[in-house]
């Protein structure tokens, strides 16, 4: 086993241990003091920042990696950093704060959505495998960057509309039974339920948009699998480039579905530990595990990092 594979295995081992311990602590399954939870949370956050920023910098600094697929991976990791930045700092502060308070505007800023980049990744792989001759003419660098920025702006616009509709509501309670802010958990505190009808409509439209994206992604990969079935070369390409996307997609869809069901139906009978796990899974697990999921690329990127480090010394 080479140094790269050893690094990958060790990262997988310790990331998995961190996630298990963190979930047990946050679920109340441990009697350890808050200082232990603070240290572990801070460690998770630091590792998340270090690993994701390192991979982003490697891709940005190496011109050989300025390809559509790696630009999209950069966008994916930036999105992970954005999501964790909205949760960890406030959570770490609250661990030692006697009063767990967040401003109304600050609460709305914590709300975030991550799905559209996975759809763009599916389209990228569809073109690369099913239309390889047209790939570079369609997926030019300018077009990829423009599309990625458009996806971010669209997501922020959707979140902004939902947040503005929520901001106008008069709330009858300052308490949210969540570890962090979610738009629907704020809407449910409205004094006049009739005023939330427009929020429900816009929220359902948002859900439909992301369901459509989900079906599009699934259709794309089903078509890719059909194309690759009779070709050994294309099957190998699929396993190397598409399998990590499918794993990330499956985790993302399951988390979103469970969280939507939990928010809309309010399963109050669920144990608090399970509710905490459902609430935090997509903020804690993916940013730590996505670098491992894309392990094919990490080994190569780690090799490039060593190469650059050796030649810079």
Automatic annotation (TrEMBL):
Keywords: Membrane, Transducer, Transmembrane, Transmembrane helix. Residues 117-294 form the G-protein coupled receptors family 1 profile domain. Pfam families: 7tm_4 (PF13853). It is a multi-pass membrane protein. InterPro entries: GPCR1_Superfamily_Member, GPCR_Rhodpsn_7TM, Olfact_rcpt. GO terms for molecular function: odorant binding; olfactory receptor activity. The chain crosses the membrane at residues 12-32, 38-61, 68-89, 101-123, 144-165, 201-221, 242-261, 273-294. GO terms for cellular component: membrane. It is found in: Membrane. One of its GO terms (biological process) is G protein-coupled receptor signaling pathway. It comes from the Eukaryota. SUPFAM superfamilies: Family A G protein-coupled receptor-like (SSF81321). PANTHER family: G_PROTEIN_RECEP_F1_2 DOMAIN-CONTAINING PROTEIN, ODORANT RECEPTOR-RELATED. This is G-protein coupled receptors family 1 profile domain-containing protein. It comes from Cyprinodon variegatus. The lineage of its organism: Eukaryota, Metazoa, Chordata, Craniata, Vertebrata.
